[in-house]
Every structure is written in structure tokens, then in C-alpha cells.
Design a protein that fits this description.
Elements lengths: L1 E5 L2 E4 L4 E8 L6 E8 L6 E6 L6 E3 L7 E6 L4 E6 L8 E9 L3 H7 L7 E2 L3 E6 L1
Parallel strand pairs: 2-11
Antiparallel strand pairs: 1-3, 3-8, 4-5, 4-9, 5-6, 7-8, 9-10, 9-11
């Protein structure tokens, strides 16, 4: 299993970025897959994911209405469209996947990184 993130960068507050995560080595539909982030000095947290069961999206309260997760199964790629970015969205964004776990549980409990498969992360910096 391999996950490769791209699309991070520096953007001003109110701007937008789209992150991509190219997945390989597993059947896309079999896994919960999503995004986590870690801000400087803070613990990693779940941002958004797509459930393995019914492909429903889940979002952290802090990003609801601003971020949208989507996937292209033909490309085995998941995206995170981030709009109305705020300085507090700054951090390293990681793509992660795991099997046999409900989406909401994945988003809330997998942030520690001890389980599942993880990409190397991509830096997102939002300036004020």
C-alpha cells in the first residue's frame, strides 16, 4: 500500500488549495481513506474521510462547509478541496487509509498514526 500526497503550499487567508492523494496497492473501494493534519505543537487530528462501507464523507466540525472530499476511483485518487482557508488550517496534511473500519471511527481515532497506512504528508501554510 502506498499513499502519495501533493498539492500543499502557501496561500493567503481566504484562499483555496486542492490536495491530492494517489493510492496504490489496494482496492480503493475496500478502504476508508481520508485526510489528517498536524499543526505545529499540536496533536494530529482527523479532517475528512470517505467511509469504506457506503463511501459517505465525514468532516471535522472545524472544516465543515469549507472543505470537500472527493474521490476518483478510476485514478485511485482522493482529493481535498479546501476553500476559505484560515491561518489555523496551517499544518502538515497526511493522507491515510485502512480497511474494515467505519468512516467516523477512522476519522476520530486513527489520528495517532498507530494503525493503517499513511503518506509522507504535504505542508499547507495559510498566512494572515
Amino acid at each position: 500500500v502506498q499513499l502519495v500526497e501533493s498539492g500543499g503550499g502557501l496561500v493567503q487567508a481566504g484562499g483555496s488549495l486542492r490536495l491530492s492523494c494517489a493510492a496504490s496497492g489496494f482496492t480503493f473501494d475496500d478502504a476508508a481513506i481520508g485526510w489528517f493534519r498536524q499543526a505545529p505543537g499540536k496533536e494530529r487530528e482527523g479532517v475528512s474521510c470517505i467511509s469504506s462501507s457506503d463511501r459517505s464523507p465525514y468532516y471535522a466540525d472545524s472544516v465543515k462547509g469549507r472543505f470537500t472530499i472527493s474521490s476518483d476511483n478510476a485514478k485511485n485518487t482522493v482529493y481535498l478541496q479546501m476553500n476559505s482557508l484560515k491561518p489555523e488550517d496551517t499544518g502538515v496534511y497526511y493522507c491515510a487509509a485502512d480497511f474494515g473500519v467505519p468512516g467516523l471511527l477512522f476519522l476520530r481515532l486513527w489520528a495517532s498514526g498507530g494503525q493503517g497506512y499513511w503518506g509522507q504528508g504535504t505542508q499547507v501554510t495559510v498566512s494572515s
